[in-house]
Amino acid sequence: MRNIVLAVIVAGIGISLGWMARSYLWRRKLDRKQAFFGLPDNSESLLVVNREAGGGPDLTVTRHDVSALLELSALIKDCGAHAQIVAHDATQQGFGERTEFCVGHPAPNRRMAAHLASLLPGIQVNADPEPGPDRGAFLIGKEQYRLEPGRSEYVLLARLTADQGHKTRPVFLFCGQRAITTQAASRYLARNYERLARKHGDKTFVLLLKVVNSQAYGPDVVELVADVTRAAQTPLPSAAPGKSHSTS
Predict the structure, then answer these.
(1) Is 3.30.379.10 the CATH classification of the domain at 38-233?
(2) Where are the beta strands (DSSP E) in 114-240?
(3) pTM
């Protein structure tokens, strides 16, 4: 009987230690995730998005932007935080007050355009409405990345922080040449945030991603082109022509 009691006690201790170890590892993983996204328990965040063209006064969002918001909402919920969806022209908060996820092209998204102009002066986005080979192209430093709809499309994924102390919340940018690319970038972040957190910690980074053959694969095939953080933060010289990147 004594051996049985001892065995039960040992088993109970083992189960308790195992549960404590799993709880510790789960909490540690959650803490890292919350730190990377700037989302402690019960914190608030913003999802800033374009209004769909012709959508009227109500906030109408494109299908791909909805999918991006769903990806990001799941990340926010996993952190135990809350999200508020706001139109780009209705956002009136400063930088770093709450974690912000800004989704869309800078032409229709004023908030995105403001972030690029003030925080990433080394990036220009061609917003010319007239058709042409450079329409929608990204100029990053001296390199130009042209849009080939359905074949080769680019999107910027950035985590930006201001030097205002450890309580400053980050801003995440999903700046794509087309709506499907912002969905691809949000999915890339959801799948790779642990690796990005290990590499970059709580620092600023700007990644250029390439969405390959979206007409066949949708937003699922994404390649990391380069870490363009330094070029994105360095102001462009006047009238920089850039070197073009395209797929023939």
Answers:
(1) yes
(2) 123-125, 138-140, 143-145, 152-160, 171-176, 205-212, 222-227
(3) 0.83
